[in-house]
């Protein structure tokens, strides 16, 4: 190609200009005179400039946000959170004080303080002034010392108490949720462990972390059951217990989970409670029943009707949204050092998430809930409940 300006031959192409007609123009650049010029291309475009979607193309389904109710929920979140947390902590059964020694701070006040620390995401020293404000609002009788709050994070009794409070906080939505999703996520610690890399002969650091196995509703993202294990804990064995704990109070219609939960036992675990399970099959899976007719049936449904299967399985994405909400609102890091305190901190974060879901649903769906009745229901089903009983 000869340059139109200097008649040189050191010319390269530099893009195409799209015209409103079917034709286009080629842009050239001359390295000798450092100027550009345009020449019309000798052939027409194969495709029209404006791309038109085929008539059978399905538009992506979108979900609108109810902004007025969302705004009201966010504006009143903290006040309602404190009120609901106070009601939940009041449901805890009083401990019998020791006959000798100093009278301990009531367990209700300690649970309130530990959960508030996770909600505020501040240090225990800075939280002290926040608790003082709540004492002036008659939401707290005794303000514990900041070291006392940290000490109670290491109390194993709080594990069962927080598990019960998580269940009670989910019960008001029992009439709303019938479709659930199961998955796990990790909470990383602020601490590191040292290990020696024999391959490269160097000392390295890795973060400690816990794995949280949870089952949640796909509509409100409320967590109905939870299990905390170490970072290397397997996902699939936790599925039956999570489903069993949820089925005590919820009517389960559908359950979805990823390939990590693909097993005959998990399909049968969901069927025992009348639930339809949608778990994709691994590449090396076969349709052999192996004692589970449901496995055989769902395998061929997955292979022959993949598109229909995906419409049900797609609801599993809501559990990812749940973990995203949890980590954005409550932070995905664990600030405690010991294992017990990290488990308590994880459970406190889940409880905070459930309370936020209740607040949102009270505006979005107009749900009116009675936590005391929910605690009585839990006590009638679970004899080991740490809350008020019938």
Please, could you describe this protein's structure?
The chain is α/β, with parallel strands linked by helices and 390 residues long. It folds into three domains: 1-50, no CATH class; 71-94 and 106-176 and 336-390, no CATH class; 180-320, Nucleotidyltransferase, domain 5 (2-Layer Sandwich). It contains 13 helices and nine strands. The strands form two sheets. Strands 4, 5, 6, 7, 8 and 9 form a six-stranded mixed β-sheet that branches. Strand 4 (179-197) and strand 5 (202-217) form a beta hairpin. Helix 2 (77-89) packs across helix 12 (339-364), helix 3 crosses helix 12 and helix 4 packs across helix 5 (146-152). The protein is extended, with a radius of gyration of 29 Å. The relative contact order is 0.13.
């Amino acid at each position: 190609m000869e340059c139109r300006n200097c008649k040189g031959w050191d010319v390269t192409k530099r893009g195409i200009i799209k015209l409103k007609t079917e034709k286009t123009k080629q842009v050239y650049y001359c390295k000798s005179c450092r100027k550009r010029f345009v020449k019309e291309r000798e052939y027409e475009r194969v495709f029209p400039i404006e791309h038109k979607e085929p008539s059978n193309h399905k538009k992506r389904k979108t979900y609108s946000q109810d902004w007025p109710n969302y705004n009201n929920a966010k504006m009143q979140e903290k006040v309602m959170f404190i009120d609901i947390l106070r009601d939940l902590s009041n449901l805890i059964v009083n401990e019998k004080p020791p006959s000798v020694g100093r009278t301990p701070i009531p367990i209700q006040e300690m649970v309130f303080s530990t959960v508030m620390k996770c909600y505020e995401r501040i240090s225990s020293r800075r939280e002290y002034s926040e608790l003082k404000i709540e004492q002036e609002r008659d939401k707290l009788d005794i303000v514990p010392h900041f070291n006392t709050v940290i000490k109670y994070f290491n109390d194993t009794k709080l594990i069962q108490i927080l598990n019960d409070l998580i269940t009670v906080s989910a019960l008001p939505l029992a009439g709303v949720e019938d479709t659930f999703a199961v998955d796990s996520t990790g909470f990383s610690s602020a601490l590191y462990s040292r290990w020696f890399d024999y391959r490269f002969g160097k000392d390295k650091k890795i973060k400690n972390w816990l794995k949280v196995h949870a089952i949640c509703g796909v509509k409100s993202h409320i967590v109905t059951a939870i299990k905390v294990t170490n970072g290397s804990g397997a996902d699939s064995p936790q599925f039956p217990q999570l489903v069993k704990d949820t089925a005590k109070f919820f009517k389960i219609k559908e359950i979805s989970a990823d390939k990590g939960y693909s097993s005959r036992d998990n399909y049968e675990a969901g069927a025992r409670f009348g639930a339809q399970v949608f778990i994709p099959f691994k590449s090396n899976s076969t349709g052999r029943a192996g004692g589970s007719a449901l496995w055989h049936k769902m395998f061929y449904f997955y292979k022959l009707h993949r598109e229909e299967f995906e419409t049900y399985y797609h609801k599993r994405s809501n559990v990812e949204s749940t973990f995203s909400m949890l980590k954005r609102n409550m932070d995905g890091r664990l600030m405690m050092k010991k294992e017990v305190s990290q488990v308590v901190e994880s459970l406190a974060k889940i409880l905070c998430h459930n309370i936020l879901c209740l607040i949102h649903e009270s505006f979005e769906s107009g749900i009116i809930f009675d936590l005391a009745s929910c605690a009585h229901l839990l006590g009638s089903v679970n004899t080991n409940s740490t809350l008020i009983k019938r």
